[in-house]
User: Fold this.
Amino acid sequence: MSAIEEFLNMLAAERGAAQNTIAAYGRDLAQAEEIVGGDLASASKAQLSKLGQGWSTLAASTMARKISALRQFYGFLMDEGLREDDPTHALPRPATRRPLPKILTHQQVEALFARAEDEAASERPKAVRMLVMLELLYGSGLRATELVSLPLSAVPRDEPFLTVTGKGGQARLVPISRRATKALSRWLALRPGGATFLFPSRAGHISRVRLFQMLKELAVRADLPPEKLSPHVLRHAFATHLLEGGADLRALQTLLGHADIATTQIYTHVDAARLVKLVNERHPLARPRASD
Assistant:
């Protein structure tokens, strides 16, 4: 077994990494090995320096992801005693700035729901399914993969929660609104029987690609720019609008299923205007003094 295979097995066994994540790491390491022209595990700093030129046409964010994979790989080799030195100092250092997430305004969300609710009034299965998906993406902040792969058993019987399996196979309880509960009841009465998934298809469950397509088609019908809408944008809107309403960052971390609070903190940048207003209105120094 190669060192790369051992590393990927560790990611699965010890960190509970998702299959998509493991596959991405595997591709990044295999491509790096091609560029250095030899065994990646024993590559010298001189060999690793070739990666800068080999990656010169890549976006900074893509290069940063590949560098992260290599740093973790060599960290694993050193932990396992398979290598004594750390050659990652020879890796390029792209300057990256994490982009702020795209968000939808409240008015855009209202337009989207108005269209989906109007279409679902026909009780056509596909229209009701779209409304349920929209409710769960924006109302509960689910990831695209979490939504499409929901088993029927995840739907609550008596409690207003969904049992969701997130990244790394971590399960969490996600609250669902009364609106979403009503839409779910309508969908359960219409969905095909005998399937184990909440949103079944011939291949098992509806795909992420198809979900993206359906949302963009809905955006067009709602007179919204289709490039503005995706499952991730709705998840961002869920988080941002909750913060605007005064939600606690730790509570938001739990709802989103983030392992690290640092991931959740990006939303504090999006909500900066509300925070500035809060300081200006509520801080003791913002109050007028008697002498003024």
In short: Strands lie at 161-165, 171-175, 200-201, 204-205. Residues 60-79 form the longest helix (20 residues).
